[in-house]
Design goal:
7-stranded mixed beta sheet, alpha/beta, single chain
Length: 258
């Protein structure tokens, strides 16, 4: 056992008191790749860094915009127009200077999937909010021998954080994104190769935009294709991200105990 963990000069001392030195060492050795560092993914990465994960790769093609400020950890008035992965990398190093960070400013898709060696990682975190790339990542990650997948379902339009829960993908209920993914898999005949855990909310919501003077009913073009803009709240997206990080930590801890 690494008794150095039980030292108040160690930033992960209290984590060790709770989870044990072996788990802290497992977190230090763990390699985690996070796809998407927006409303959910940025908070997930923050938690992984503070938990002591020793190697984090962040993947996102977007830059910080004014519309991100209401919910994304990477977004404030000093980071506008900067690449989200660069802002996130600086944040990780500020929290955990010894963490090895890799920033990939790009998009995951069927066309770019070969660029990502998923099985080089212990955990793959899916915080993608576009259907096609999300479905492809789920299929690819669940085929890996080493990597384990944890995934975020839809946080948009949800406001009651007390309803946020976790479940195996096929057991998720009340989430339109999960339903759309399952329908897509059934139509294509391709299904995830293994079970994986998701964070989701079964909260029933009315998908009706609040009038604000602009036409927000039409989809907008993003790096991952056209998407409809939905209302979001930081309390929900941050809670989703923290629960997603917890799923990743549990996957690492389970492997550390093997």
């Amino acid at each position: 056992m690494n008794t150095d963990c039980y030292n108040e000069s160690n930033p992960f001392y209290r984590t060790a008191l709770l989870l044990g030195a072996d788990t802290v060492e497992g977190l230090r050795r763990a390699r985690v790749r996070v796809f998407g560092v927006g409303g959910v993914g940025s908070w997930c990465v923050e938690a992984l860094a503070r938990a002591g994960v020793g190697h984090i790769t962040v993947v996102d093609s977007d830059t910080v915009a004014f519309s991100n400020i209401n919910r994304q950890l990477v977004a404030d008035h000093t980071t506008l127009s900067q690449l989200k992965v660069d802002v996130m990398s600086h944040r990780i190093h500020a929290v955990s200077p010894d963490c090895r960070v890799h920033a990939y400013a790009g998009v995951y898709s069927a066309e770019t999937a070969s660029q990502f060696c998923l099985d080089d990682y212990d955990v793959v975190v899916d915080a993608i909010d576009s259907l096609a790339p999300k479905a492809h990542l789920i299929l690819a990650a669940t085929r890996c021998r080493r990597a384990r997948l944890v995934s975020s379902m839809g946080a948009a339009l949800k406001t009651d954080i007390l309803q946020i829960s976790t479940a195996e993908f096929w057991q998720v209920r009340g989430c339109p994104l999960a339903r759309a993914l399952r329908d897509r898999f059934k139509r294509s005949g391709e299904r995830p190769a293994r079970k994986f855990k998701c964070v989701y909310s079964p909260q029933l919501v009315a998908n009706k935009p609040v009038p604000c003077g602009d036409d927000i009913s039409q989809p907008v073009q993003t790096a991952n294709g056209r998407k409809r803009v939905n209302g979001t709240l930081v309390t929900t997206t941050a809670a989703f991200g923290l629960v997603l990080a917890q799923l990743a930590i549990e996957a690492i801890a389970a492997r550390s105990g093997d």
